[in-house]
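Sanity check. The docking grid for manganese (II) ion depends on where the pocket ends up, so I'm generating a full predicted complex first rather than guessing from homology. Inputs follow.
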Amino acid sequence: MPFQQPPLPFAMNALQPFLSEEQLMYHYTKHHAAYFKNLNALVEGKPEANLPLREVVLQSAGGVFNNAAQAWNHSFYWDCMMPKAGGEPKGELAAAIQRDLGGFEAFRKSMSETAVKLFGSGWAWLAADQTGKLEIMPLGNADTPLKHGKEPVLTIDVWEHAYYVDYHNERGKYVDGFWKVANWAFAEKRFAAALA
Ligand code: MN
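Predicted complex below; grid placement will be based on this.
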């Protein structure tokens, strides 16, 4: 199998009470795993099978793109969370949020609103262009800032499967809880990589 699902970067019960073990189990072992399985079946014997996953996302369309991007997006999403994390970013990322998005509280409010209002399935992204300018991007289905020439810095999955076990229809409560586990150390590294 050319593409392998990376391990979850934390234990299945480590994000409680934000996400239950059952919620994460379905999301990681059913939904995320299925995108890898589908992608591997679609690219079997094709040139894409020899590319890094990120390159497949950049170069593909249709079903290959949908599954490759969902495989990549979820691995990125897991890294955006960490037990006992949360708080605020530091350093260059904090300065860029101040400069481009009006400071941390304004950013958090705006990103939350974007995540809650996104119609249907998709992702709320914080992304940077090559100059480090930040923006909040609501993107539908499997779409990712990579496809728009931007570097992802942080994401919230707002497909219903991401929260329905724990929050049912209350997406807003799921989004509020996300901030208590937001992995700013990871986002700071992604922002630095966007500038490199
Ligand atoms: Mn998902």
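Relevant for the grid: Residues 21-79 form a domain with the Helix Hairpins fold (CATH 1.10.287.990).
Also worth noting: The longest helix spans residues 21-43.
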